[in-house]
Specification:
single chain; 116 residues; 78% helix
């Protein structure tokens, strides 16, 4: 990770021994190790969350592509019913105060014509 050789590590240990003294050096090393392991765990956690989010986004895009391909290859009858379903969904999403009252002027579908 840091590419520190033996001589650099020895120099750091000598400077630490001179600055902190033999009493506080072991506890300082343990504290540094704990902090370093906490940073590693945090970075691994962030990396795994990012990987999961990217995977979810990729799966969502693949699902959209598959849906769009399947919806383009529908028969005319299924396309009409899909349009009706979309219109019904749009009507449900509108607030009730803005909804238009139903009238008998709607175009009749094949099922309505058979009922007459």
């Amino acid at each position: 990770m840091f590419d520190i050789g033996f001589w650099e590590l020895l120099l750091i240990a000598i400077v630490g021994l001179l600055v902190l003294g033999p009493e506080r050096l072991p506890s300082a090393i343990r504290g540094f190790q704990r902090a370093l392991s906490g940073i590693r765990q945090y970075s691994q956690k962030v990396q795994s969350e990012l990987d999961n989010e990217l995977r979810i986004k990729e799966l969502h895009e693949h699902l959209k592509q598959a849906e769009s391909q399947d919806l383009e290859n529908l028969s005319p009858e299924l396309q009409r019913s899909l349009v009706e379903l979309r219109n019904a969904a749009a009507d449900v999403q509108r607030p009730y105060s803005k909804a238009k009252p139903e009238t008998d002027n709607k175009p009749k579908t094949d099922t309505d014509k058979g009922a007459e």
